[in-house]
Amino acid sequence: xxxxxxxxxxxxxxxxxxxxxxxxxxxxxxxxxxxxxxxxxxxxxxxxxxxxxxxxxxxxxxxxxxxxxxxxxxxxxxxxxxxxxxxxxxxxxxxxxxxxxxxxxxxxxxxxxxxxxxxxxxxxxxxxxxxxxxxxxxxxxxxxxxxxxxxxxxxxxxxxxxxxxxxxxxxxxxxxxxxxxxxxxxxxxxxxxxxxxxxxxxxxxxxxxxxxxxxxxxxxxxxxxxxxxxxxxxxxxxxxxxxxxxxxxxxxxxxxxxxxxxxxxxxxxxxxxxxxxxxxxxxxxxxxxxxxxxxxxxxxxxxxxxxxxxxxxxxxxxxxxxxxxxxxxxxxxxxxxxxxxxxxxxxxxxxxxxxxxxxxxxxxxxxxxxxxxxxxxxxxxxxxxxxxxxxxxxxxxxxxxx
Length: 402
Fold this sequence. Notes:
The protein has helices at residues 3-26, 100-105, 306-309, and strands at residues 39-54, 60-73, 79-92, 114-120, 123-137, 141-148, 180-188, 194-202, 210-221, 224-233, 236-247, 250-261, 265-266, 269-270, 274-286, 291-300, 327-338, 341-350, 354-364, 369-380, 391-401. It is mostly beta strands. The chain has one domain: Porin, CATH 2.40.160. The strands form two sheets. The protein has an 18-stranded antiparallel beta barrel. The radius of gyration is 22 Å and the shape is globular. 22% of the residues are buried.
């Protein structure tokens, strides 16, 4: 890493410290003293040090400074305006990967709200507005318009019903996840029943723009919450269902979606009907360690083409492409080492004999500071997807929330 990059990194650390000091004086309020405000500002600053090793390739080291602002304005009890700005500064070897800067700077919304405003050697700075919407609600109705997340998943690892905002299970640093430029209308029918209609669009000003329309109906049959989903999602007609409840003291959740292509080809690729289904369960023992164990199973009847597989690590193209193999199984366990430290371990196995291991440890340093240590390892049989190029990634992340 060049001396210029090191100097930029030091300056950023100093700037972050100044922001922290200023925020301490301007944002902190004594509990119970400040009156309710129409405006609220929150967010975080995260500093990541990353190291990666790929067999038959040089090891890499990278730094990421990740900052976020969440702003809300509430002029009344029914109406709310929200916006969130995400800023990232990358330093290191990752920037030499072909297409990395383009992938980071892609937006995919109706309006391009992402910009790579600095690309110079081994430095990349990018900003994106990933939330920008107004929300109105009454006792029975709710309307949300703008860039926001439509979360229709009932499971916690894989979500075949999450038609609008699929995400990568390997990305452990983007808790908020991406959103859609969409209109969401919701109508409540009693305590546990609701109908939602959603319409999302990508780049409406270009020829052949992509529209997605879907509906979800939620209801309850004790002890389970159930949902039915139907939609026209880009080039697919979709039917789906999901449930969440408990059995014998263990949590039990599942989702299934059937994707029927409207055309034989889409963006130059052949299309096939696909069934995507998942079933998962978890059980908590509580106690001093607060032990939680879970298991998940994913089925994809027709796996994506090889050229689409690489995108699964950053962002799946849709809920129809959640894995590169027909069957995927996952187990994980988490527990508290101390009251301020929680450990998580997980293993995913793919039916081409690939496997993915992860370990995380989150340590609370104070009310506003958290240190997280993460290790990810991709490997498998010599002929498997991960076995052909084993990869290990580790990082330490210091987070300050305000």
